[in-house]
Design a protein that fits this description.
Blueprint: H1 16-31, H2 33-40, E1 42-44, E2 53-55, H3 60-75, E3 79-83, H4 89-103, E4 109-113, H5 116-119, H6 128-137, H7 150-153, E5 154-155, E6 158-160, E7 167-172, E8 185-188, H8 197-207, E9 211-215, H9 223-230, E10 234-238, H10 248-257, H11 260-268, E11 288-289, E12 299-304, E13 311-317, E14 323-330, H12 336-350, E15 356-360, H13 375-381, E16 387-388, H14 393-405, E17 407-408, E18 411-412, E19 414-417, H15 421-430, H16 446-460
Parallel strand pairs: 3-9, 3-10, 4-7, 4-8, 8-9, 11-19, 12-15, 14-19, 15-16
Antiparallel strand pairs: 1-2, 5-6, 6-7, 12-13, 13-14, 17-18
Helix pairs in contact: 1-2, 3-4, 4-6, 14-16, 15-16
Amino acid sequence: MDNLNPLPPDDAGALPEMAAQQAALKARCQTDILFWINHYGKTYDPRAKQSPHLDFKLYPFQERFVKKLVRHIEKGEDLLVEKSRDMGVSWLVLLVFQWYWLFQPGSNFLLGSRKMDAVDRLGDMSTLMEKLRYNLALQPDWLMPQGFQKRLHNHHLKLINPENGNSITGESSNANFARGGRYKAIFMDEFAYWQNADMAYASAGQSAPCRIVVSTPHGRANKFAQLRFESPIQVETLHWRQHPLRDERWYLLQKARMTEDELARELDINYNMSCRDRVFREFNTVHKRPLDWNQHINVIRSWDFGYHSPAVLFLQIDPFGRMLVLHEIVGERVQFKKFIEMVLADSQKHFPGAKFEDYADPAGNQRSDKSEQTNIEMLNQVGIYPCVKSHNVFDEVELLRNAFSDIINDLPGLIVDERCRHTIAALEGGYRFRQNSDSILEEHPYEDVIDCLRYAASHKLKLNRNTYRRQKAKTYIRPIDPMTGY
């Protein structure tokens, strides 16, 4: 069997010995997925110098990845794949699904991506379903399912195998993704960019024992990053250095063509720097570390009010003038009076005997139809009298950006305790510009904790006018990209 060579499609008058060899080859393909991919897998790359139609010859790291995919599908275990671009990951997942679809009865699969045009669009080779059709069209006739007819079994968002009843279907990101279906495995591509990712991932878990989530990173403020760093899911990392045709010279050439966030996202698998639209590009790993509070310095409590979603940050200004974010509390579906009780309890637990300074959003003085008292009045009832003043959001964002950039005695001017996960996630990309806009995306809890940080900064930090760029219009100015200059 090991000496068999792949044969071209048979003719109507194929000799008996050729038919026997084809049967042997088909049997080999059914039991050896690497053999099938290496001999009958095809890929399409319009950047190829000669022909865009290429045979898929697996590199060692790709063979290992295919074997891992099969193990996870067979065991019914989830897998997260973080990757550099152009590692062949999407093609490989699709080929594994197609191998099951061809040869393993009882194998239904679902493909998903962030938008419909990324899942299926006729003639568009960038879509998942079209990649499957491309490889299927190049299979020899004797490997195709018996009775397969394009007009009957090749549909928009669906491929049907009439011989064994298998199907591969496609769906775009939505809150009810995969709900109602039953699958052997589900492929969730570009998952860091999905809307409704939390609900889609949860519903997919009820529809398949194996979820394969794949993406390049896009900051930390998304479900993909949460799964990667805060869940027990198994992780596979496919970094460009594993590719035998790429080296440091290749990397330097790519680096010269990319912005900082592009390099972090497309090649380096760097979550902190990969979000293109994040407001605080200055924030990185040097700005987060374990912090202890100084019992001889006042503790700042900065309050942001929200109906059922308030937030408080605990901070100090150290003797060198650095701002330290020590602790955070973020409310989830909690009434403000109950939230005050939580803050008071945490104040005593984490900062016993401390003297507190309180600052808050002036919107806390506004009345609403949801309560007879304002938020400030509720604080006053328990002896908290926060300082409030009108805020210019842009000025305060500049204050924070300057503080991150300042170096005071070899340390940054603003440091966040590494346990303040909401604040760190906000700074790493949760607090970001709307796509193609200069306005900030208002998303809980990222906007809430940054608002707390802004209020404290407006009272305790001074704006460095030498580096300040005032805007003329009342819109945000995106940070200048150091790679492009604009």
